[in-house]
Amino acid sequence: MFFNKSIQKLSGAKFIKEFLKEKDLKQQDVLFTIEPNTKEYELNRKYLNSLGISITAINQYVAPFYDKDDIRYEKLIQILENLEVKTKFNVLTYCKEIYNFLEVKK
């Protein structure tokens, strides 16, 4: 699929900065985030809302700690399938809040 095609690599911070500038994100219910814990859940919602990206509890999910030998995503899949308005982007956050990630990498 990508044979003989040049693809410009981006750092994670640059990708997130550019992604968060997308005009589509300003529309209601286009983004769903999967957060590692409740702290990032709250911080990311506040940060995204401060950028004019409307995200509510309906479009956020705190992932549980999975047993490395038994990872099942049934609950998340069910949530995504049952959303009244299907999201355009699903973002898995990790380790650090989006806000802190961007602040450190500026």
- The radius of gyration computed from the alpha-carbon positions, rounded to a whole number of angstroms, is 15 Å
**How far apart are the first and last residues' alpha carbons, in Å?**
33 Å
* Count of runs of 4 or more consecutive helical residues: 4
Strand order of the largest sheet: 2-1-3
Largest sheet: 3 strands, parallel
Helix content: 25-40%
Q: Average pLDDT across residues?
A: 80
N to C succession of SSEs: HEHEHEH
Return residue spans where pLDDT drops below 50 for at least 5 consecutive residues.
Answer: 99-106
Give the percentage of residues in beta strands. 5-15%
Number of domains: 1
Structural class: alpha/beta
Description:
It is globular, with a radius of gyration of 15 Å. The chain has one domain. It has 106 residues and is an alpha/beta fold. It contains four helices and three strands, in the order H-E-H-E-H-E-H. Helix 1 crosses helix 4. Strands 2-1-3 form a three-stranded parallel beta sheet, covered by helices on one side. The relative contact order is 0.23. The C terminus is likely disordered.
Itemize the secondary structure elements and their pairings.
Elements: H1 12-19, E1 31-35, H2 38-50, E2 60-62, H3 74-81, E3 89-92, H4 98-105
Parallel strand pairs: 1-2, 1-3
Briefly characterize the structure.
With 106 residues, the chain is an alpha/beta fold. The protein has helices spanning 12-19, 38-50, 74-81, 98-105; strands at 31-35, 60-62, 89-92.
